[in-house]
Amino acid sequence: MLTRRHFVITSAAMFSAAIAPAFAGPVSNRSKWAAYDAQVTPVNYDPATTNPWGLHPRFLPQLVEANAGLKPGDIHVDAVARYLYHIRDNGTAMRYGVAIARGNLYEPGVYTIRRKAKWPTWIPTKDMIERDPDVYGPLAEGMDGGPKNPLGSRAFYLFKGNRDTYLRIHGSPAPRSIGGRASSGCVRMVMAHIIGLYDQVNTGVTAHLYPTEIVTARN
């Protein structure tokens, strides 16, 4: 016969073990975004001339003439010259300096920007951890959004159809890498530059990432 005392003891044994909270992942504190923006934007910032990063002047934002036939709103990345162009609706484009992926990690192609984020969180991919376990292994649970986060101040997320490619166009805490090949697959920008670009880019537009070598026709 089960007594009340037996029921209480049994119930306690069944339910007293603490349940570990589920891993919620890294977070981005919205209340800090304005302060972060101010932290990475130089005082008296002028996109065309401000250059505390020591970039070659050609990598500063410039308004240029766009090639004919390009769709307004789209993004084009020239991997040879290390430029990103955002096409405007008046025959012009804003041009920015970028860094691209090192070695064979750069993936040219045509993508759709299906998401964008301010001060995004970041989690290294499985491939990144396998490729560089000493670098990315300790960061496997990800990083909160902030100035030290590898995705920096803003990010555009590149998709193929509905599939996230894990490629991004994003700000970088390493602005001196602009003009080079430095990332694990993404296209990097100066954080202050992508802050200025962010509101001009709509989700649903196309991002064209061109090859790292100019291909010429042969007879």
Q: Could you explain how this protein is built, in words?
A:
The longest helix is centred in the N-terminal third of the chain and has 12 residues, at 4-15. The chain has a single domain, classed as L,D-transpeptidase catalytic domain-like. The chain has helices at 4-15, 33-40, 126-131, 133-136, 191-198; strands at residues 62-65, 75-78, 83-87, 92-97, 100-101, 109-118, 154-160, 163-172, 181-183, 187-190, 206-209. The strands form two sheets. A nine-stranded mixed beta sheet has the order 1-4-3-2-11-6-7-8-10, covered by helices on one side. Strands 5-9 form a two-stranded parallel sheet. Mean pLDDT is 88; it is low at 7-16 and 215-219. The chain is globular. It is of the alpha/beta class.
Topology:
Elements: H1 4-15, H2 33-40, E1 62-65, E2 75-78, E3 83-87, E4 92-97, E5 100-101, E6 109-118, H3 126-131, H4 133-136, E7 154-160, E8 163-172, E9 181-183, E10 187-190, H5 191-198, E11 206-209
Parallel strand pairs: 2-11, 5-9, 8-10
Antiparallel strand pairs: 1-4, 2-3, 3-4, 6-7, 6-11, 7-8
What proportion of the residues is helical, as a percent range?
10-25%
Largest sheet: 9 strands, mixed
Rounded mean pLDDT is 88
CATH topology: L,D-transpeptidase catalytic domain-like
What is the molecular shape? globular
For the record, the CATH class is Mainly Beta
Q: Main attributes?
A:
219 residues; alpha/beta; L,D-transpeptidase catalytic domain-like; nine-stranded mixed sheet; two-stranded parallel sheet; 11 strands; 17% helix; globular; disordered C terminus
